[in-house]
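Lab notebook page, bench 4
Experiment: in silico fold of construct C2
Operator: M.H.
Input chain length: 424 residues
Purpose: comparison with the prior construct
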Amino acid sequence: MTRARAAVLVAAAVLVAAVAAAGYALVRGGRSSSRVVTDGPSAIRAAFAARSYEPGAGARLVVTARARRLAVRIFHVGPEEEWTRRNDELKGVPITATRTLRWAPGGATRGVAVRVRGWPSGLYFARLAAPDGRVGFAPFVVRPRRLGESRVLVVLPTNTWQAYNFRDVDEDGVGDTWYADSDIDSVDLTRPFLDRGVPPHFRGYDYGFVRWLAHTGKRPDVVADDDLERLSARALHRLYDLVVFSGHEEYVTPHVYDAILRYRNLGGNLAFLSANNFFYRVERRGHRLYRTDRWRDIGRPEGRLTGAGYVGWFEDKWRNGPYAVVGTRAAPWLFRGTGVRDGDRFGTYGIEIDRRDGSSPRGTIVLARARDLFGKGRSAEMTYYETPRGAKVFSAGVMNFGGSSSQPVPSRLLENLWRRLSAP
């Protein structure tokens, strides 16, 4: 075995172990008792009352902490030079001065007012620090002051982040999500995240692409799922040449499904940088999100839109593996400058995977394939198709493609994809 090959296998094993340790396994029935569902009594818990704000808005940050003082500062995720190395940490560029608040050593929950300034659209967080070194994070999205400032829209998977939030608010010992108990049918969208406030799997699935945007000079409009809920298909088509779903966009409402399908039918371009997208139908009622059906079970399979249908998850046994390139002749524009040819391999992918199926649009092509990644006949496929109206649709086919954006081949693929799909 070559040294390079050994390194790939070791990296794959480490990633799988890390994902398993993070409690990714889905609960198919009953309850899960092995997952951490709350913080220790000394934790700093914080979350914004809304998941996105526009410049000039007043934001409300709800904080629970035991401390005499708290230092609060706002950061922008992406432009920073230093990488985030931990799953319970967020890094960014500071954009405000540090604000020191008197608090309550015995513990208190209070609202803190934050003014959203004229910051660029993107992902931000409040960092809260106690004098003894304890830290908490509270992420939020800054949407553009006026939609359409960029011709590219990036949607962050804020619904999925909360679905994977195992926080136990009612203190019954079980995380308040259907992943902890299959009898639970809703999640509270206002809960602080565990892991000191970092969205679940953010470092592995989302962070690489957020950083790639900043370090390649991209300035798209960035929104949360809540913002997409307010946009019609015609507004999307008028404002944007490309809509990018940057992460695991599993949970979408009927309005969003209809709007994105219609946007595509009007000729709008789409890029899905993860896997298992548009899989579950959900409804928003107040601050809760209710899961109802799988879209494929009610006659609207995800592959009809994304180009690839969901195959499955790694079941705590299937290792990640590289993609093998198969589509350089079918899509030479995508692989231009990557240095790869058909048969070459890149990356270490898996976790959840998609592939072409009977619902995929006619003419869907496979760009790369990880054959039998989850057992015989269960392969991951990166796909692409175009419609008669001119829509171009890309699907990564694996959960963590966006997270690998800093690597040379994925970075170049994204650059080529961005150039082609964002062109008017």
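Observations: The domain at 45-142 is CATH 2.60.40.1930 (Immunoglobulin-like). The first strand starts at residue 45 and ends at 48.
Next step: discuss at group meeting.
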